[in-house]
Amino acid sequence: MKRIAGLFTTLLLLMTLASCNSPKTSGENPFFSQWDTPHGVPPFDKIRPEHFMPALERGMSLHEAEIDAIASNKDEATFENTILAYDNAGQMLAQVELVFDMLCAADTNDELQALQEQAKPLLAAHRDKIRLDDRLFARIKSVYDRRASLGLDTEQARLLQKTYDAFVRAGALLGEKEKARLKEINGQLSLTAVKFGNNILAENNNFALELAADELDGLPAGIRDAAQEKAREMGKSGKWVFTLHKPSLIPFLTYSSKRDLREKIYKAYLNRCNNGDAYDNKQLINDFIRLRTEKAKLLGYPSYAAYVVADEMAGTTDAVYSLLDEIWTPALERAKGELADMDKLLQQDEPGATFESWDWWYYAEKVRKQNYALDEEMLRPYFSLENVQGGIFYLANRLYGITFQPVVAPLYNPEAVAYEVLDADESHLGVLYFDYFPRSGKSQGAWCGNYVEQTYKDGKRVAPVVSIVCNFTRPVRNTPALLTLDETETLFHEFGHALHFLFHDVKYRGLSEVEGDFVELPSQVMENWAFEPEMLKHYAVHYRTGEVIPKYLVEKLRKSELFNQGFATTELIAASLSDMDIHSTTDYEPFDPMAFERRALNEKRGLIPQIEPRYRYPYFSHIFDGGYSAGYYFYTWAEVLDKDTFEAFRESGDLFNKKIAADFRTKLLARGGSEDGMSLYRAFRGADPDKRAMLKGRGLWNEPEPEPAEEPAVPL
Known about the structure:
five-stranded mixed beta sheet
């Protein structure tokens, strides 16, 4: 996953400039001088929370001065003095924001959370001031209107088009009254997002299931040890503690035979920010939808979903719904079949009991053992974090020739580690941080982002500084971190995002980003290698014995690859549909988000109560404070592309085909947004993607029976 009131008054601007010119602040603030660090990584050892506001203020002031110079230029607007100048403006602010946003997600504290509430509305106002500047837009439009006669090359034309479109989508064509209201909306939305995310973080940290020794039935030793370690950390010696973080929650749901305890922890997870207390997010959800719907209407769209999707590969909400609906029905039917198999086992344990959502993981694991003689706990010793990371490095080297070496560099948290990434010719490609384990100041989930973006300066490529952030199972005492299959796949996924950032070789900053429903292709395609037998023999090694994962386990893995896919697909598509539905609101009225979800999924589409959507609204961070609003479908849209991409390797007969990998890198990964996503994909694949590979990968496609050959005519 990739991550993201009112105008400044003259008085505030003067105060800002005064504070930025303070000798004391300038001397101490690491954002005010060039970084003397290995490979230009941020000086995390010097950055303090109090540095951010002065740096953001100075960045905004410098950016405004640069924009004013462009807008007030008396010369005729040209690509160089307007479009290129705009593209180069605001670099200091962009750098400070990158570090600020990444730290607020990965290593926040009370000071940073307070700063977010202060800074985000100011930053929203700053962006609006620029995007709604009539003088600046007039110059951009002047260049745009003359684009056919300017002799621009392909990338210049693309940058011009994207710049013009961005201003129009930001409201540049609106009247003054509408612009003023849009500024208010954007300021309110920025603050609402901060509050929403901080509430989730608090809820994640506030719950702990504290157990005694007689309440651990069914839990494997490694899971018990991790819970005991968590209890010690909390000062609860002699107890075992489980939390709402996935490495704690999912194993408990999978193995605990205490049904009442599974219910307790799962309901706590499902009801985060839905408890009618200070952290309840339901009113904030109303605020999001009210403001986003109004914003879409101001900009000429019937709904916020229509506004978002118009700028993506899908183009229309109809195209999104068409794909999701095509998958929904067969996935739900498959899930119902899975439920029927599990319910038989429940009835053996508790005759007459009703199967509930908190039973799914527990009985799914029983079915896996029964049907495939496979227990995930028997696999984990082969997937130590060190080995999985080594496997990923091996894959990157086989495909692209790149290597990774540890580097001593400033760290934002002692648990993070840093690597220099070297290209095949041993030139510097970038720096990659890993931050693997849960902690109280880290948001849930996993993501990849930049601390320094790839750019060009004085004709030379500035290498990116990239970070992968996860919430994986911690090591316990002398046992290393042993990953689940899901965690293993997640690391392959996030590493795909990292490669996308590291391989970027984009001339213009405004062409760095790709469409949202394209951005998951580079990450998801990497998942395809994770459990291939050819890969497993290179990295799935028992952490104690050094034994390579035996063939019989690999074969069991292969046979079980479609295990529980009905559930996995249904919960994914359910979340995508609930996202699209709530953002397809055309006329806002106050509503109960939970009732809306129930109508949209259970009543309208028949979602069975034993399956919850992957994310419920009150903690659906992706779509409310994570940049995926009306975009959770991105994962499914991109899956069509990633499965079709992997087919290219399969068809070649070599899963490590260097020529195909080189094409994928140069024609797609390196290009950023230099062309639209589908054009980049066609250039790589030579054709449009075939979604059959995705449907087959999820067990939702059966090859049609071949037509019977016609009998030859018998002569009379």
